[in-house]
Amino acid sequence: MAAMDAGFFRRWLTLAAAAVDRDAARLTDLDSAVGDADHGSNLRRGFTAVTAALDADSPDTPGAVLQLAGRTLVSTVGGASGPLYGTLLRRTGKALGDGAEVSGEELRDALRAGVEAVARLGGGAAGDKTMLDALLPAVDALPDTAAARAAALGGAEATVPLQARKGRASYLGERSKGHMDPGAASSALLIGALDEAAAGQDGTVEGDG
Amino acid sequence: MAAMDAGFFRRWLTLAAAAVDRDAARLTDLDSAVGDADHGSNLRRGFTAVTAALDADSPDTPGAVLQLAGRTLVSTVGGASGPLYGTLLRRTGKALGDGAEVSGEELRDALRAGVEAVARLGGGAAGDKTMLDALLPAVDALPDTAAARAAALGGAEATVPLQARKGRASYLGERSKGHMDPGAASSALLIGALDEAAAGQDGTVEGDG
Amino acid sequence: MRMLINAPETVVADALRGMAEAHPDLAVDVENRVVARRDAPVSGKVALVSGGGSGHEPLHGGFVGPGMLDAACPGEVFTSPVPDQMLRAASLVDGGEGVLFIVKNYTGDVLNFDMGAELADEEDIRVTRVLVEDDVAVTDSLYTAGRRGTGGTLFVEKLAGAAAEEGAPLERVTAIAQRVADASRSFGVALGAPTTPAKGGPTFDLPSDELELGIGIHGEPGRERRAVMTSAEIADYTVDVLLADRMPSGPVLALVNGMGATPLLELYGFNAEVQRALRGRGVEVARTLVGNYVTSLDMAGCSVTLCEVDDELLRLWDAPVSTAGLRWGR
Amino acid sequence: MRMLINAPETVVADALRGMAEAHPDLAVDVENRVVARRDAPVSGKVALVSGGGSGHEPLHGGFVGPGMLDAACPGEVFTSPVPDQMLRAASLVDGGEGVLFIVKNYTGDVLNFDMGAELADEEDIRVTRVLVEDDVAVTDSLYTAGRRGTGGTLFVEKLAGAAAEEGAPLERVTAIAQRVADASRSFGVALGAPTTPAKGGPTFDLPSDELELGIGIHGEPGRERRAVMTSAEIADYTVDVLLADRMPSGPVLALVNGMGATPLLELYGFNAEVQRALRGRGVEVARTLVGNYVTSLDMAGCSVTLCEVDDELLRLWDAPVSTAGLRWGR
Ligand SMILES: Nc1ncnc2c1ncn2[C@@H]1O[C@H](COP(=O)(O)OP(=O)(O)O)[C@@H](O)[C@H]1O
Ligand SMILES: Nc1ncnc2c1ncn2[C@@H]1O[C@H](COP(=O)(O)OP(=O)(O)O)[C@@H](O)[C@H]1O
Ligand SMILES: [Mg+2]
Ligand SMILES: [Mg+2]
Ligand SMILES: [Mg+2]
Ligand SMILES: [Mg+2]
User: Fold this and answer.
1) D 222-261 residues with CB below 8 A of A?
2) Half-sphere exposure of B88 toward its Cβ, with a 13 Å CA cutoff?
3) Which of B7, B161, D19, D194 has the smallest count of CB within 10 Å of its CB?
């Protein structure tokens, strides 16, 4: 994984926005089984605002890109996922500092700080059937983005049999079993977009962002 | 047709009540196509009250039986059919006077007065797609009750293609065509019950009332 | 069938028991089906009585109280009440100044209220009657039972009720009710059919991509079906129909009414479009009421009622009212 | 999909425009999504701010006005608002005596309101927070996000609002809100699922002969499904669940609440059964409110909230309130 600049992070978020847009209905359907049927439209609204914010105001460091994105998510998403994803990106961005480029290892460490902030804010842990179940294994697999993508997907899949202990799905008790957690699914999209951006950077695949 | 006493009229109304009870769902369904889906339950409520009133207070002349039944319908049915059927029976009963027995011809003439009162009260005429379309031909066919029953049924059938000009169905305009008028259908039941009562009296068929 | 009821036969009686429990300032006669002000008869005041089939709540029982009705006569679901109820209500609330019957124009309501008025007359109660016939969806009044009474009823009850509360005599209260009835126009749209307890299922089938335009408040199908329209399109259509029938020359009261199952969120959004449509056509809206006031059980949909007002009617609108369903001022 | 909307994305903004048109005494900031008293800030008065996802109307915007909330922050449908809204609302209504945030216990609401409180703190606005967590359907609070906030919110907003209107300082208003939250318990039953604009269809499938017991107000499925029950049976079940969780030792306020699509007629009938059930178990009901107050779009169903009150809370309940959704006295 080559060193990543602000452009890379913009591409990542643009790819994430496209993925969320594409899969919004699926995320909402997942949320309708165990929640309140808004996760897809929440994230679509948020990531649309993120790409608009990045277009309007082009921050020139990786940390600034993620912090702007995080602030934008907090200000536009609402729900549980807004503060949580917002905190994830803001916190990761802060951890990246203000260098113009970051390495894969730096990204991994920063993302770990971000994920830990999410766990602190939401009081959640692995196995609670939340976005953490996709994010935690993904961070562990970095800086290999392809492995991280697979780990996030696997983590999301692994939420299916779990009983939710956090968020809205927890109200269902036993009935939350048998459904994938919508936040874990969207986290897999986010990590998938990171891998796409990295692949594009390596010249293997040109991301559409 | 033999002379009819108060017992005959009680049997008639009891048979009518049974028919209405049996066909209540059908009447309500007819009313749901062109009206407000209450004709069956309206008449069931009314005729249940009629049999109870006749049980509680056994009037001893045909005229008194019909007047009590009519008053009971007015007080318990509501809607358009309550005052109209109530007036039909009250007026017919009044026209029968206070003799202990009446002939088929006397019943026909009294029923004609009753039907005319219905037309006056509701401002309706033949062809308006109302109960009158079953009642008018039935009266014309009396004192032959079997012919009257057939005429009422035919009259009810003949309302199917008509566009309603009175009552709730008239709001549908053209869309009221193609459905039988619920009040015409219930009038056919009423006249059918009269024929059943007459047949029972002649010993041909024993009515269950 | 999934309803919050005990049995179809007990729906109205159960609801009256529940009203009695919730509103100690109402005198609810469950047996005889009359809802009246507890302080009735109010001596020296003209009394207002209305009623009709149940299923339109808060109309009419929810509009009983100071500044509006003195009594309401609830019939079975979608079935007009019987004359005995009107007689009992009139006897209960007549404070010596006479009673106004406010009647929605349906064959059943008209016949039963007229019989009720005859009975009241026999008891020497002075009764006048005003007919509400505001539904412009009913065209061709010559070949129909005439226009239905719908949302305009609320305006008639409120404004005539305020006049009565001010001490106006029967003739004047009646004249005001008539003026309001004359100045009111309504049009309704269904996005789904209601389920009546008697039928236990929807009273009509509506394909999921169509609307019923020109519906009444009894689950009757409308006069036309159309492919689904946006809130803005429905507002334009509705306002056009209303203004084509009667273009007000002064300010109006607007009732943007829910039929029962349409969320208030959607109704407020619809109100924004109705106001835009009215403004665009030069109509000034003096007051607006948004909510579920003249309903049709759990029908999804909406209706708009406009009532042209002068200063006097506007003052009567703003006058205090204290009922379960409408309450302000004092 | 058949809704009275323009597009799923504009539902909330359209509704706010419509609220602004209907209620001249509200200051509605459509762009920034804040509904406030037009006379805010009221100097010398503690301000109350609440909010949450839209789709529960009249909660919260319909409860803004003298005697209740100073401002409400509506989020997207079933989605809690964002911290920017809470900051703006707090800045707008703070009359120098501080602001109470009334927050329904959902992860999203808690996180966003907390962030909003942090932002307000940075602007030197004194903010306290009370969490409403009254839904007894959520058992096992250790393994869940805790009890949801539902109907009890109305009691908290009304009683704390009355205390603020009387001039109580922030600590006291907060303490009263907390007492009311502690004393409130709710339980809800769905007879049908709501349709959200984002999904365009029902959020869960319910066979026509079953009920969802223990539902929330966001179209979430409940904790149990059962074959259809009568109104009396649902009342007994609901009251048993409520009293098992908290048996009041004094009189209660009762909210018999419709979820949106259940006709008022049925709701009143249900109230009769709820009152019977409470009376039979020795609970004295001091005041009852029946209607659609804390809704879930067009969900069919009902909930019951009980709140034990002493003389002081009862006085605060009876105190005047003047909002779009709740209005009495003066
Ligand atoms: N306490 C928590 N910790 C971590 N993630 C959470 C927590 N609560 C909820 N989530 C995540 O948020 C997702 C739901 O987001 P969303 O539907 O947008 O918000 P809401 O639940 O408020 O409607 C869940 O699927 C879950 O992954
Ligand atoms: N003006 C009228 N003249 C004669 N019959 C009428 C008139 N209006 C209605 N009807 C009859 O009444 C029937 C409807 O009765 P019902 O459903 O019980 O009352 P409602 O229409 O008030 O719901 C119609 O089918 C029709 O036969
Ligand atoms: Mg959600
Ligand atoms: Mg009918
Ligand atoms: Mg009827
Ligand atoms: Mg949500």
Assistant:
1) 223
2) 21
3) B161
Instruction: For chains D and C, tell me whether 3 or more CB atom pairs sit within 8 A of each other.
Output: yes
Which one of B76, B116, B130 would you pick to mutate in the ligand 2 pocket, going by the greatest count of ligand atoms within 8 A of its CB?
B130
H-type alpha helices, B57-174:
62-76, 81-96, 104-122, 132-141, 145-158
Q: E strands, C60-115, where?
A: 71-77, 99-104
Q: Which tokens is B146 given? A: 């079997």
Pair of tokens at residue D269: 């009938």
CATH number corresponding to A4-198: 1.25.40.340
Return the residue in D204, D208, D265 with the most chain C beta carbons within 10 A, the one to mutate for interface testing.
D265
Q: Give all domains of chain D, ordered by start, each with its CATH number.
A: 12-182 (3.40.50.10440), 184-316 (3.30.1180.20)
What gap in Å lies between CA A176 and CA A161, rounded to an integer?
8
Chains B and A touch (3+ CB pairs under 8 A): no
Q: Per-residue DSSP letters for C157-226?
A: HHHHHHHHHTT--HHHHHHHHHHHHHHEEEEEEESS--B-TTT-SBSS---TTEEEES--SSS---SEEE
Q: Decide: C251 and C308 in contact? Cβ < 8 Å.
A: yes
pTM: 0.95
In total, the C-beta contacts within 8 angstroms joining chain C to chain D are 207
Pocket of ligand 2 (CB under 6 A): B 31, 35-36, 38-39, 42, 79-81, 84, 122-124, 130-132, 166-168, 181-184; C 79-80, 107-108
Could you tell which of D54, D104, D107 is best to mutate to test the pocket of ligand 1, judged by most ligand atoms within 8 Å of the CB? D107
The residue of C78, C109, C223 whose CB has the most chain B CBs within 10 angstroms, and thus the best one to mutate to test that interface, is: C78
Q: Tell which atom from ligand 1 comes closest to the C-alpha of A82.
A: 18
Please name which of B84, B112, B81, B83 lies closest in space to residue B96, comparing C-alpha atoms: B112
pLDDT in tens, D235-262: 999 999 999 999 999 999 999 999 999 9
Asked whether the predicted pLDDT for residue B109 surpasses 90, the reply is yes
Tokens of D144: 């869940």
pLDDT exceeds 50 at position B209:
no
CB contact D55 to A (< 8 Å): no
Distance A39 CA to ligand 6 centre (A): 7
Q: Do A36 and D76 touch (CB under 8 A)?
A: no
Mean pLDDT of the residues in chain A: 94
* Size of chain D in residues: 330
Per-domain residue ranges for chain B? 4-198
pLDDT at residue A37 is higher than 60: yes
Specify whether the backbone of A79 is left (phi greater than 0), alpha (psi in -120 to 50) or beta: left
Short-list A75, A5, A3, A18, CA closest to A196: A18
Exposure of D324 in the CB half-sphere (CA atoms within 13 A): 32
Mean pLDDT of A19-47: 95
B182 and chain C: CB distance < 8 Å anywhere? no
Distance, in Å, from the CA atom of B95 to the CA atom of B117, rounded to the nearest integer, reads 11
The amino acid occupying position B63 is G
